[in-house]
Structures are given as structure tokens and as C-alpha cells.
Design a protein that fits this description.
Blueprint: E1 5-11, H1 19-32, E2 37-43, H2 55-58, E3 62-63, E4 69-70, H3 73-81, E5 90-92, H4 93-106, H5 116-133, E6 139-144, H6 154-167, E7 171-178, E8 181-182, E9 187-188, H7 191-202, E10 209-214, H8 220-230, E11 237-241, H9 249-255, H10 258-266, H11 277-287, E12 291-299, H12 309-321, E13 324-332, H13 341-344, E14 350-353, H14 362-374, E15 379-382, H15 384-396, E16 404-405, E17 415-419, H16 421-424, E18 434-442, H17 447-452, E19 456-463, E20 465-467, H18 472-478, E21 480-486, E22 491-497, E23 503-506, H19 521-540
Parallel strand pairs: 1-6, 1-7, 2-5, 2-6, 7-10, 10-11, 12-13, 12-14, 14-15, 15-23, 16-17
Antiparallel strand pairs: 3-4, 8-9, 17-20, 18-19, 18-21, 21-22, 22-23
Helix pairs in contact: 1-3, 1-9, 4-5, 5-6, 11-12, 12-19, 14-15
Bound molecules: glutamine.
Glutamine (GLN) binds near residues 383, 407 and 462.
Length: about 550
């Protein structure tokens, strides 16, 4: 490919301005103009990957096809662009240093003093260019985590400076910043933006485009002021007004001509107005639902906005597909007990039990599953949610009262969920699970087969424990059937119940693969079942 172009997205003034959404929207618009894109996130923390961070620290851990445990922004990239990401799309300071230190130990730098500049910055640049060198993309969009001015981001900003110096106009910087509105003065304020651009300039980086997050429209005066103080033409000052949903942002950026500005700067043809009609149709369905359902999301991190990000987004995609508003009620599993379950789960049209690790809240999850099974409420169990469904069935149908997963009770007489043999030998924590995409063969005639409408699927995993095949025949005879199997390792990947309208557990994470262009069939099917359940209840009165 003749010269991949590099776009960096930096953030100023405050965190959480939505660099990930701006990066993903830029990619979406460039794609719609016929350019191929990939998006990468550089995270300044020293963890090698976010896999060992708990969701309180960093929200959900997103898993790619090739099994990388990554930042949740990669989920946005995939949901917007419908292009899978990989390990190369998420780099942390920890990974950079680990690589450099390994090289030093190997003797690659013999005789040299190993330093931040050039060794760390070279490694940062290498991990950016690697995506361009593949030759598959017209644009590599790299989001720099953190906010300009953070000590830990400095080597990244220095790498950006060097790349601009080396590549000239083949490399541009979009700086996302905040224009606060001061109610007392009734004014939008540009000073924080001026300061954050100055801070970038101190590091030798002049942004080419400034995207301004704002609550109120920016008038021409404000744009002119930002232009003057920050050295960019007025047309490169882009307003990013608060939107009703993140999915509005590509359309808003199209109106603001963010893509046109990018193409002008890098000297590529602008072409025709981007056709986003499928995206608009999705938004139209999302904003004008014909029905409404209420789904319970049961987990132990429900108070955290980002802990189940991909699940919540999958509900949005599947809701739009069904032209149905999905109201998600987050329910803490810790508080669920047989004596309050009816009350706590009142009015739900479907129950999703979330993935998770460890003991906290697990009995509550099992209690909720028991309720969904007995009351014939649509149920979807994901990963730990599926494992809990297997435990619930053992205890209450097979009558193995003390059955458990060995993650919680290593000595249980009925280890219905158990560690895989090759997991038993591992003593490290990071990156040692069954991670990434694995094939699965669906059993014809099952509900899940009618949902996927194909026999061979591949889905992403992130777990250590598995369905214990010793108990397989007993389950099958009782009515819980293995509906999807990994034939290579003979692992049960999907269970469903024969005598229930919609009760499915999946060992993998369908939520990682749901996008606007392709809402995930399992979620679409689940919401369909919730609608049916809702309608039946209400017709029946
Ligand atoms: N803790 C379970 C396991 O390791 C489930 C993991 C998950 O839900 N992602 O197998």
C-alpha cells in the first residue's frame, strides 16, 4: 500500500472525553469514503495487559480474536468499524518495557545504555508502525490513553513528535479537548484548551485538528479564538457536542467534516459524501422502538458503568434489530436470596447472568438462575453465568445438593465445573486463561442452531474452568443438553434446556462480537424471546 497514513488522537483538559468514540467515528467515516482503517490504543499504565486489573480499576477487559486481553476501547473500535482487532491494537507501557528489557537481557543492545529515548520511544514507534507495515490499511489511528500533561504519557507524546518529524504530512494529530460552559458567566471557555495545546507544543507537538467536546454549540467567535491561539485553521476546529447516544457521533462528525479535514491534511482524495445509510437505519430503529422489554443483568459489578460494557452495547444492537427498547435493570447478585428472589426479579422479561470470577455473589446468581428456570423466564448465562446454570441444575434437578464449580469449592463431591487438565499446571495469573476465538460445532435441532442458522461457529473465550464431561450423560438424560461442542478438545461450549422456552448458557462471550453492522445472533435471539415472554404475559393479563 502506498504510504499508510498515521493519525494520533490525544486528549486534553480532562479524561473521559471520549477519545475512543472520536477515534472510532473517524475510522467509520474514512471507511465510508472507501479507506481501510485500523485503530490502536496505547495505554500508559505499567500492567502488561488489563487482564489482571479488576473492573473497579478499568472497566471491562475486552478480548480479541487472537486472545489478547485489552482495553475496553477496542470494543468500541470493533462495534463501530466492524473490523476485528488483535494484540497489536493494544499496547501498554508495561508491554513496551517488558519487550525492551527482554531485548536488553538477550544482549540486543550490548554496550549501550538503555534509555527512555531512544529505546523506549523506538519500541513505541515500532508497535505503531507494525500495523502500517502489514500493508493492509490506508490509516492507522492511534489513541493515546490518558491526558496531555500526565507524566506517564510523556514517552508516547515524544514518539508522536518523532513520527511527525519523520513522516511529515503522512502523520497528523487530532487533539480532543473540553470547552467548559460556565453557567454563572453564561459562556463557553477556551482557556483550558489553549493551555492543553500549549502543553503539547512544549513537547514539540502541534495538533492539526482540534475536536472540542462541549455542552453548547460553538459559535464562530469561539472557533476563531481557538484557531488563533492554537495555530489551526478555523475549519480544523471541530465541534463535538454532547450526543444522545455514542452512536450519533459518526453522523455529527460527518456534519462537522472531521473526515474531510483529515483527508485534506494528509493529501488524499476526499471523494463523495460518506454513505452511512445502514448506520442511520440502525439509529432510526434504536430511537423509534415499537416495543419495550425489561431485562435483568445480574452480576457483582453492576454499580460500575463500564464493567459490563460489551453486554450493554450488545443489548443496544439487539434491541435495535428487534425494534425494541431494552431497559436493563442492573441487579447485584450478592443481595439475592431464595426468600427475596421473587420480589427482586419482579417484572423482568429476561434474565442475563454475567461473567465473573471468584466467590462473591455466586450463590445469588445460582438463586436467580433457579428462578428463571422454574418460572420459564428467558435466560442467558455467559461464561460464569453458564457455569452457575450447570451448578444450579446439578443441585436442584440432579439432586447433587453439594455440587459446585471447583473454582469455589475444590473438595466438592460433584465437581460439575472443573479445571481443564492443562490449566492445572499453570501458576501464573496474567494471560494464562483459555483466551480468544475457538471453534464450536452446534447440534442440529437445538434452539441455538436455529439462532445461528449454521453448524460451525467461532466465539471468543476468557476462562479457566469447563463443564466436566464425567457428568455429561446424566445431564443429557435429565434434559440439559450440550448444544455446542468444541470437537477438538471435546469441551461443552453451550448448554440449553429441553423443557424451557429459552434457557441458554454459553461458555464463551458473544458480547465481544456484537457490532452495529452485525448484532450478535445470541443477543438478538434472547431479546426476541424476552419480547415473546412479555407479550404472552400481557395478553394473558
Ligand atoms: N471464573 C470462571 C472461569 O474462570 C468464569 C470466567 C468468566 O466468566 N469470564 O472459568
Amino acid at each position: 500500500m502506498a504510504g499508510t497514513k498515521y493519525i494520533f488522537v490525544t486528549g486534553g483538559v480532562a479524561s473521559s472525553l471520549g477519545k475512543g468514540i472520536i477515534s472510532a467515528s473517524t475510522a467509520k467515516l474514512l471507511q465510508a469514503r472507501g479507506y481501510s482503517t485500523t485503530i490502536q490504543k496505547l495505554d500508559p499504565y505499567i500492567n502488561v495487559d488489563p487482564g489482571t486489573l479488576n473492573p473497579y480499576e478499568h472497566g471491562e477487559c475486552y478480548v480479541t480474536e487472537d486472545g489478547a486481553e485489552t482495553d475496553l476501547d477496542l470494543g468500541h473500535y470493533e462495534r463501530f468499524s466492524n473490523v476485528p482487532t488483535s494484540q497489536a491494537n493494544n499496547v501498554t507501557t508495561g508491554r513496551i518495557y517488558q519487550t525492551v528489557i527482554n531485548k536488553e537481557r538477550r544482549g540486543d543492545y550490548l554496550g549501550e545504555t538503555v534509555q527512555v529515548i531512544p529505546h523506549i520511544t523506538d519500541e513505541i514507534k515500532r508497535s505503531i508502525k507494525i500495523l502500517g507495515d502489514e500493508g493492509n490499511y490506508d490509516f492507522v489511528i492511534t489513541e493515546i490513553g490518558g491526558t496531555v500533561g500526565d507524566i506517564e504519557s510523556l514517552p508516547y507524546i515524544e514518539a508522536v513528535r518523532q513520527m511527525r518529524f519523520e513522516l511529515g504530512d503522512d502523520c497528523i494529530v487530532i487533539h480532543l479537548t473540553l470547552i467548559p460552559y460556565l453557567a454563572a458567566a453564561q459562556e463557553l471557555k477556551t482557556k483550558p484548551t489553549q493551555h492543553s495545546v500549549k502543553m503539547l507544543l512544549e513537547s514539540g507537538v502541534q495538533p492539526q485538528i482540534i475536536v472540542c467536546r462541549t455542552q453548547k454549540p460553538l459559535n464562530e467567535n469561539i472557533k476563531a479564538k481557538i484557531s488563533l491561539f492554537c495555530n489551526v485553521p478555523v475549519s480544523s476546529v471541530i465541534e463535538s457536542i454532547d450526543a444522545e447516544t455514542i452512536y450519533d457521533v459518526p453522523l455529527l462528525m460527518r456534519e462537522e467534516k472531521l473526515d474531510v479535514e483529515v483527508l485534506k491534511k494528509v493529501g488524499l482524495p476526499i471523494g463523495t459524501y460518506p454513505d452511512l445509510s445502514n448506520w442511520e437505519a440502525f439509529l432510526d430503529r434504536l430511537k423509534n422502538p415499537k416495543k419495550e422489554v425489561k431485562v435483568g443483568l445480574i452480576g457483582k459489578y453492576v454499580e460500575l458503568k463500564d464493567a459490563y460494557k460489551s453486554i450493554n452495547e450488545s443489548f443496544i444492537h439487539a434491541g435495535a434489530e428487534n425494534e425494541c427498547k431494552v431497559n436493563v435493570e442492573s441487579i447485584h447478585s450478592e443481595g439475592l436470596k431464595p426468600e427475596n428472589i421473587k420480589d427482586k426479579l419482579k417484572g423482568l422479561d429476561g434474565i442475563l447472568v454475567a461473567p465473573g470470577f471468584g466467590e462473591r455473589g455466586i450463590e445469588g446468581k445460582i438463586t436467580a438462575i433457579n428462578f428463571a428456570r422454574e418460572q420459564k423466564i428467558p435466560f442467558l448465562g455467559i461464561c460464569l453465568g453458564m457455569q452457575c446454570a450447570v451448578v444450579e441444575y446439578a443441585r436442584n434437578v440432579l439432586n447433587y445438593k453439594t455440587a459446585h464449580t471447583t473454582e469455589i469449592d475444590q473438595k466438592t463431591k460433584y465437581p460439575v465445573i472443573d479445571l481443564m487438565e492443562d490449566q492445572k499446571k499453570i501458576d501464573k495469573k496474567g494471560g494464562t486463561m483459555r483466551l480468544g476465538s475457538y471453534p464450536c460445532t452446534l447440534t442440529k435441532g437445538t434452539k441455538i442452531y436455529s439462532i445461528y442458522k449454521e453448524e460451525n461457529i467461532a466465539e471468543r473465550h476468557r476462562h479457566r474452568y469447563e463443564f466436566n464431561n464425567e457428568f455429561l450423560d446424566t445431564y443429557r438424560d435429565a434434559g440439559m443438553i450440550p448444544a455446542g461442542i468444541n470437537l477438538q478438545d471435546n469441551l461443552v461450549e453451550i448448554i440449553e434446556l429441553k423443557d424451557h422456552p429459552w434457557f441458554i448458557g454459553v461458555q464463551f462471550h458473544p458480547e465481544y462480537r456484537s457490532t452495529v453492522a452485525k448484532p450478535h445472533p445470541v443477543f438478538v435471539g434472547f431479546i426476541g424471546a424476552c419480547i415473546k415472554y412479555h407479550d404472552q404475559l400481557h395478553v394473558a393479563g
